[in-house]
Amino acid sequence: MKLIDKIKLHHNNLTPKLKQASNSILLNLNEIPFQTIRETAKKADVSALSVSRLNKLWGYTGYSDFQLAVRLECYPNIKKNPKLDLDIIDENNIKNSIELAAKVLTESNEVYISGFRSAKSFALYMNYMGRMVFDNFYLMPDSGLSAAQDFVHFGKNNLLVAFSTTPYSSETVKLIKTAQSMKIKTLSFTDNNLSPLAQHSDFVVEVPILKMNRLYNMAPMINVIEQVLEKSFEILGKNADQKIEYFSQRIKAINGYW
């Protein structure tokens, strides 16, 4: 049964508020993979709890599960693999995007890295590992408003790196759009070339993230971050090796950990 038919099947048994939510979701079904539950609820003029209840009535475990079903139906060309390794991505495309991302990173004067909610860990990881070599890497503030205000200080050839996967952080989407309006160069790491981040970024690294059971498997994103940094270090050559060695010695000197 098609997703739309499945939704309509329950329509007559819904309360007025849930019918209102159902109608709104049907009208904007292709946008569901790119919206948080709060954004979907706001569009329907109902509470997030109503949307969640509706998803469960339709047979889904929750909003994220429903998002995945919509994504698979509306965007079926996204490759899927239950093993969730990088073989699911077209090898040439991922190789080209990694090489381009590394080139952009090494050619930028300053690199500002941003991630909110679950994507914050990606930003932290890239910043920490990258700063072994790049002393021009900076972590953006946790607040979307504070981060956007930092754009005032951006100079020529600065780069904003942003991370977000479904359900996309509204703070990150707004940040990318603001950067675009200010003609600031942007590089996004996201799970879909159709995502709001990808649509408003100069450069995109697409990393499909799939849901196995209750949680999304984020390991492929860490893998790609490491590949981009490795490629960047390769571009810098001996200079990168010397900085990594120096970093290692300094960590050992204080009995620290990587």
Write the layout of secondary structure elements.
Blueprint: H1 3-9, H2 16-27, H3 37-44, H4 48-57, H5 63-74, H6 91-107, E1 110-115, H7 120-130, E2 137-139, H8 144-149, E3 158-164, H9 170-181, E4 185-190, H10 196-199, E5 203-206, H11 219-236, H12 238-253
Helix pairs in contact: 2-3, 2-4, 3-4, 6-11, 7-11
Would you give an account of this structure?
This protein is an alpha/beta fold. It has 2 domains: 72 residues, Orthogonal Bundle (Arc Repressor Mutant, subunit A), CATH 1.10.10; 168 residues, Glucose-6-phosphate isomerase like protein, domain 1 (Rossmann fold, 3-Layer(aba) Sandwich). It has 12 helices and 5 strands. The chain has a 5-stranded parallel β-sheet. Helix 2 crosses helix 3, helix 2 crosses helix 4 and helix 7 runs parallel beside helix 11. The protein is elongated. The relative contact order is 0.12. About 4% of the residues have low confidence.
Summarize the structure.
This protein has 258 residues and is an alpha/beta fold. Helix content is 52%, strand content 10%. It has 2 domains: 3-74, Winged helix-like DNA-binding domain superfamily/Winged helix DNA-binding domain (Arc Repressor Mutant, subunit A, Orthogonal Bundle); 86-253, Rossmann fold (3-Layer(aba) Sandwich), CATH 3.40.50.
